[in-house]
């Protein structure tokens, strides 16, 4: 099981939100490149980046910054937020990003997801964000009538092999992940790597997620507030049963 340290970007700075609420923003660093270098030095093997400005606008306002982050570390990065057309996919992958995460368009434009997967295979991931089990879009500001599990099954049918599954209710709360929801998702799409996101705070949380069969876990606020270290999380993720 892999640990993905997270970097969320608003206005060029490294921030964390609470339950995706842009009005509940805490800035942790002015330079996300320095944060990425710290996560790498602490043992992070794959860095998860979200352009929160892009998630809201559907554009790529932090593209150049994200390319600088990629160039500043020697580990792969994945990027989500505002990737809603093939031009954005090509630009990020051409800029050195290892994997791009398609979010809102998974629901509104599945044909685009299918074409991206045909062209780029495992370098495409889909981000499914759920509120009470229903898929949310546009930077979590709208909740659809589509169950997250059903959307995941549709993405699996398109050939998607990586899904980042975020439980909005737990995100940024430091109260633990929605383990049951993650287990349900793993069971629903067994041919897809599920990366859990939201609420991971302790080694016990990591261990509980490991039992569900997820491929990895994204950790954000708990790292920034020293509730857990990457080393401790990785130890829990790889501990022998």
Question: Could you please describe the fold and organization of this structure?
Answer:
The chain is of the alpha/beta class and 241 residues long. The protein has a single domain, classed as Aldolase class I (TIM Barrel, Alpha-Beta Barrel), CATH 3.20.20.70. It contains eleven helices and twelve strands. An eight-stranded parallel beta barrel has the order 1-4-5-6-7-10-11-12, surrounded by eight helices. Strand 11 (193-197), helix 9 and strand 12 form a beta-alpha-beta unit. The two termini are 13 Å apart. 48% of the residues are buried.
Give a topology summary.
Elements: E1 2-10, E2 13-18, E3 21-29, H1 32-41, E4 47-51, H2 52-57, H3 63-72, E5 77-80, H4 86-94, E6 99-102, H5 104-108, H6 110-120, E7 124-131, E8 134-137, E9 142-147, H7 148-157, E10 162-167, H8 179-188, E11 193-197, H9 203-212, E12 216-219, H10 221-224, H11 230-238
Parallel strand pairs: 1-4, 1-12, 4-5, 5-6, 6-7, 7-10, 10-11, 11-12
Antiparallel strand pairs: 1-2, 2-3, 7-8, 8-9
Helix pairs in contact: 1-3, 8-9, 9-11
């Amino acid at each position: 099981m892999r640990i993905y340290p997270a970097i969320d970007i608003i206005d060029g700075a490294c921030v964390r939100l609470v339950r995706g609420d842009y009005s509940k923003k805490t800035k942790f660093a002015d330079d996300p490149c320095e944060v990425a270098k710290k996560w790498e030095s602490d043992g992070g093997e794959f860095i998860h980046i979200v352009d929160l400005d892009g998630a809201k606008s559907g554009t790529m306002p932090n593209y150049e910054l994200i390319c600088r982050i990629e160039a500043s570390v020697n580990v792969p990065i994945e990027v989500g937020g505002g990737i809603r057309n093939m031009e954005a996919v090509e630009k990020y992958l051409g800029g050195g990003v290892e994997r791009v995460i398609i979010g809102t368009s998974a629901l509104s434009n599945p044909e685009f997801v299918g074409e991206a997967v045909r062209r780029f295979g495992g370098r495409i991931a889909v981000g499914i964000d759920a509120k009470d089990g229903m898929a949310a879009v546009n930077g979590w500001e709208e909740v659809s009538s589509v169950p997250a599990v059903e959307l995941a099954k549709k993405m699996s049918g398109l050939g998607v092999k990586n899904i980042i599954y975020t439980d909005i209710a737990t995100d940024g709360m430091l109260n633990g992940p929605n383990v049951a929801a993650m287990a349900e998702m793993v069971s629903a799409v067994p041919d897809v790597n599920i990366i859990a996101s939201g609420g991971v705070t302790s080694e016990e949380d990591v261990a509980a997620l490991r039992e569900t069969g997820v491929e990895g876990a994204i950790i954000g606020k708990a790292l920034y507030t020293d509730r857990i270290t990457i080393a401790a999380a990785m130890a829990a993720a790889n501990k022998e049963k």
